[in-house]
Amino acid sequence: MTILSTEIKAVITLFGATGDLAKRKLYPSLFNLFRKGFLADNFALLGTSRSAWSDEEFQANVRESIQKIAEDKDGQYDAFVKHCFYQPHDVTNPEHYDKLNDRIADLETKFGTENNRLFYMSMAPRFFGTIAANIKSQGLLSDDGFNRLVIEKPFGRDFESAKQLNKELTETFDENQIYRIDHYLGKEMVQNISALRFGNTAIESLWNHRYIDNIQVTLSEDMGVEERAGYYDQSGALRDMVQNHIMQVVAQLAMEQPLTFTDQEIREEKAKALRSLRKYTPQEAAANFVRGQYAAGDNNNDYRHEDGVDPESITETYVAAKLSFDSERWAGVPFYVRTGKLLAGKFTRVDVVFKKPLLDIFSNAANSHEQKLNQNVLTIYIDPKPGFSLTLNAKKVGQGYTTEPAMLEFFHSDEQKALSPEPYERLFHDALEGNSTNFASWSEIADAWQFVDVIRDVWDHESPEFPNYTPGTMGPKEADELLARDGREWVVK
Ligand SMILES: NC(=O)C1=CN([C@@H]2O[C@H](COP(=O)(O)OP(=O)(O)OC[C@H]3O[C@@H](n4cnc5c(N)ncnc54)[C@H](OP(=O)(O)O)[C@@H]3O)[C@@H](O)[C@H]2O)C=CC1
Ligand SMILES: O=C1O[C@H](COP(=O)(O)O)[C@@H](O)[C@H](O)[C@H]1O
C-alpha cells in the first residue's frame, strides 16, 4: 500500500461522464474530497463520452449534480468545476485516444499532477476490455507517474467471462493497479467488522465454532427494480448482490486475522476464506439455496409485469442460502445469507448468534424461570443506522429469579454520521491514494464466481414456481424452512 501525501495529485479520466452513476455518485464524491482538502490544486477531472459537450457544458452538468448534495460555501462550486474538463470520445475508435492523450498531457502541465493517471471505467462492462487495450496501444500510460484503473461492477457475468475480462485488463494493467469497485466495501460498518473482531479480545476469542452457533447476513431492500429492470432481468439477485456484496461481507466475517492491517494481507486472508467456502455440488446447491420472485402488491406489479422485464422471466429477485466453510474455525457453523427486492424494509445487518450455555442452571432454580435462556446475538447494523448491539441474558429486576434479554447498543451519533464519507467518496479517495484494501482482488472474484456458477447452472435448468413471495414480507416460506430444517430461525423474521 503506497500512501501519498494527503493532497492527491492526478488527472482522473472518466469514461462514461454523461452517465447516471457519474452524475449521481462520482461527481458528488469528488466534490466532497475537494471540500475536505484531499483534492486541491493539483488535480483535474477529464470526463469523456460520445456526447458532443464542451468543457462549459460539462462543468454545468457537474455543478448540477453537486448542487444536490451540498450548498455552495465560499465559491466552492466554481473552484471545483475549474478542475473539470470534457473530451467527446468514442471508446471504440482508437484514433480518439490520441486526442484524449493530448488533453491529459495538457492538464498534467496545467495542474502539476506529476503525471499520475487514474482511469475510471463507468460504462457498460462490454467496453472495459476495449478501453484497456486502447489505453495501452495508443500510449496513454504514464511513464513516470502512477497508472491506476478503477472499474465498475459487474465484473463479468460468470467465471469464464470474468476470467476473460481479467485477462484483457491485465494485458494493460498489473493486478496492483486494478481497483475493482464493490461499494459495500466502502460502507462504514462493513469496514468496522475488522475493528470489532481484531480490536476486541472479548469478541475475537469467541469468533469460532466453539461459541458461535450460526451467522446471518441480510441485505434487504424495500424497492423493486425501478428503472434498472433491463439490466436486472439479465442479472438477478444472485449475480447482482450475492456474488459480490454478500461474498465480500461474508469473507470479512469468516477470514483469519491478517498478520498486519495492510491491503495485501487483508485481501489475502479474504481470498483464503473464500477458497475455503464449500463449493456445492448441483444437489447441494438445490438443497441449500432458495430463490424467489415478487408477486403483485398493493403498490406494485408483479416482477414479470414491470417495464423492461420479460413476461416469462425466471429471474430471481430474492435469494436465501446456507453457506459452509471447510475450515477449523467454522466447522459446523452455517452462514445463512439472504437478499431481495420489495421486502419488508431497507436494511443491511449481520447477526452473529452464539451458542446457548451448555447447562441452563436457572431451569432448576427454586423460582424456576418460565422463559428459557436466549442465545446471545451480536448484531452489526450496516444500514441505514450504523452501529452494533449485543443481546445478553440478565436477571429480571424483582423477587424470584427470572432471566430476560438485555441489549447493549451503540449507534453512530449524527455527528459521527456526518463525518462518515459516502462509499464512493471513500473508495475514490483510496484508489487515488493507492490503497486497495477495500477493493476486490481477482482471486476473491474468481472464487465467488466459481461458487455462484454452480447455483446459476442448476437454476437455469429448472422451472421455478414464480411468483412466490408477497411484497412487504421477508421472502418466500422456503427461506424460513431452510433454517427450520436445522432447528433455527432468522433473527429478523
Ligand atoms: N447507475 C447505477 O446506479 C450503477 C451503475 N453501476 C455500473 O456503472 C457503470 C455505468 O453505469 P451507468 O452510469 O448507469 O450507465 P449509463 O448507461 O447511464 O451511462 C453509460 C455511459 O457510457 C457512455 N457511452 C456509451 N457508449 C459509449 C461509447 N461507445 N463511447 C464512449 N462513451 C460511451 C454514455 O455516454 P454517451 O451516450 O454520451 O456516449 C454514458 O456516459 C456500469 O458498469 C454499471 O453496471 C454500478 C452500480 C450502480
Ligand atoms: O449493487 C447494487 O446495490 C444496490 C443496493 O445497494 P445499497 O447500498 O443501497 O444497499 C442494489 O439496489 C442494486 O440492485 C445493486 O446493483
From TrEMBL:
Record-annotated Glucose-6-phosphate dehydrogenase C-terminal domain positions: 195-490
GO terms for MF: glucose-6-phosphate dehydrogenase activity; NADP binding
Keywords noted in UniProt: Carbohydrate metabolism, Glucose metabolism, NADP, Oxidoreductase
A UniProt-annotated Pfam family: G6PD_N
Pathway in which the depicted protein is active: Carbohydrate degradation; pentose phosphate pathway; D-ribulose 5-phosphate from D-glucose 6-phosphate (oxidative stage): step 1/3
Positions bound to substrate: 183, 187, 221, 240, 341, 346
GO biological process, one term: pentose-phosphate shunt, oxidative branch
Domain Glucose-6-phosphate dehydrogenase NAD-binding: 14-192
Chemical reaction(s) catalysed: D-glucose 6-phosphate + NADP(+) = 6-phospho-D-glucono-1,5-lactone + NADPH + H(+)
Keyword NADP assigned: yes
Record-listed E.C. numbers: 1.1.1.49
Residues that coordinate or bind NADP(+): 16-23, 50, 90-91, 153
Entry's Gene Ontology cellular component terms: cytosol
Catalytic residues, chain numbering: 245 (proton acceptor)
PROSITE patterns: G6P_DEHYDROGENASE
Function of the molecule: Catalyzes the oxidation of glucose 6-phosphate to 6-phosphogluconolactone.
Protein family according to the UniProt entry: Belongs to the glucose-6-phosphate dehydrogenase family.
Name this polypeptide is given: Glucose-6-phosphate 1-dehydrogenase
Protein's organism: Limosilactobacillus equigenerosi DSM 18793 = JCM 14505
Top-level taxonomy: Bacteria, Bacillati, Bacillota, Bacilli, Lactobacillales
